[in-house]
């Protein structure tokens, strides 16, 4: 995607939400580029809302750029209350699985299984033990980043740092598949680094 195509998505919305996230293992050069990108976009698009998953690595790198300009435009979707407490941003908005209504939770569970069917058993058995419960919260959180709620609008685009050899691996890959299932354009570093 070209920057102008991205701009076209953003500029036709009143408060466009864009998801920024990726792999935990991100090279130092890309950590710097990710922060530069979000700093530039925060300045260029004053109505844009930045959503991420509150994880270490790519998520943190993207968030750093926003914090330099306007941290109040950050939305973080975390797997549980108190997740990465030391990295919390006072002015950011937070969403947790506990915030979902029963209907929203059922939808998140359904879309989680649709996007990554191999995890269906894990999700269905999440109440059986702590390990399954913890793992399922992360997957459901990854789905929630895309689905949003009545207060967290669905994103108009999603920007990722991915493993170039296997872009759809792990939790990042799951989020990418949820985006694709809902027709949300996804952008990888081979495109967004050219925007700088």
Question: In words, what does this structure look like?
Answer:
This protein has 196 residues and is of the alpha/beta class. It has a single domain, classed as Rossmann fold (3-Layer(aba) Sandwich). 46% of the residues lie in helices and 12% in strands. The protein has 8 helices and 6 strands, in the order H-E-H-E-H-E-E-H-H-H-E-H-E-H. It has helices spanning 3-11, 28-44, 58-69, 102-115, 120-124, 130-147, 170-181, 189-192; strands at 17-22, 49-52, 74-77, 93-95, 157-161, 186-187. Strands 4-3-2-1-5-6 form a 6-stranded parallel beta sheet, with helices on both faces. Helix 4 packs across helix 6. The longest helix is centred in the last third of the chain and has 18 residues, at 130-147. It is globular. The relative contact order is 0.18. The model has no long low-confidence stretch (mean pLDDT 95).
Task: Give the structure's gist in a few sentences.
With 196 residues, the chain is α/β, with parallel strands linked by helices.
Q: How are the elements arranged and paired?
A:
Layout: H1 3-11, E1 17-22, H2 28-44, E2 49-52, H3 58-69, E3 74-77, E4 93-95, H4 102-115, H5 120-124, H6 130-147, E5 157-161, H7 170-181, E6 186-187, H8 189-192
Parallel strand pairs: 1-2, 1-5, 2-3, 3-4, 5-6
Helix pairs in contact: 2-3, 4-6, 4-7, 6-7
List keywords for this structure.
six-stranded parallel sheet, 8 helices, alpha/beta, 46% helix, globular, 196 residues, Rossmann fold
């Amino acid at each position: 995607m070209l920057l102008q195509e991205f701009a076209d998505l953003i500029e036709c919305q009143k408060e466009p939400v864009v998801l920024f996230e990726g792999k935990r293992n991100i090279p130092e050069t890309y950590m710097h580029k990710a922060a530069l990108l979000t700093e530039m976009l925060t300045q260029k698009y004053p109505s844009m809302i930045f959503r991420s998953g509150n994880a270490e690595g790519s998520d943190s790198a993207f968030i750093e750029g926003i914090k330099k300009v306007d941290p109040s435009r950050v939305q973080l979707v975390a797997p549980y209350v108190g997740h990465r407490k030391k990295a919390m941003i006072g002015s950011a908005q937070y969403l947790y699985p506990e915030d979902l209504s029963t209907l929203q939770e059922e939808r998140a569970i359904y879309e989680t299984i649709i996007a990554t069917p191999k995890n269906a058993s894990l999700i269905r058995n999440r109440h059986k033990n702590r390990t399954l419960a913890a793992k399922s919260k992360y997957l459901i959180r990854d789905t929630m980043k895309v689905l949003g709620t009545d207060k967290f609008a669905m994103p108009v685009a999603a920007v990722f740092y991915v493993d170039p050899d296997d872009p759809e691996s792990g939790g990042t890959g799951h989020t990418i598949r949820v985006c694709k299932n809902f027709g949300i354009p996804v952008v990888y570093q081979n495109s967004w680094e050219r925007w700088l």
